[in-house]
Hints:
Elements: H1 3-15, H2 18-26, H3 28-36, H4 42-66
Helix pairs in contact: 1-4, 2-3, 3-4
Amino acid sequence: MDIKAKVEELVKKIQSDEALQAQFKKDPVKAVEGMVGVDLPDDTINSIVTGVKAKLNLDKLGGLFGKK
């Protein structure tokens, strides 16, 4: 599994769906497991969750810097 590609895919899904955003904020591991649909080892899920969190935070910061 290409974790980087999966992170990008999940970030797009989360950003476009408010229900997924709420679920990810409440329980990111469960949200990712539900979106992936496959039972993955804990270390893989945790890597994906960490990547998604980092990407979402970078996107938020980028938006802040772009505003005037």
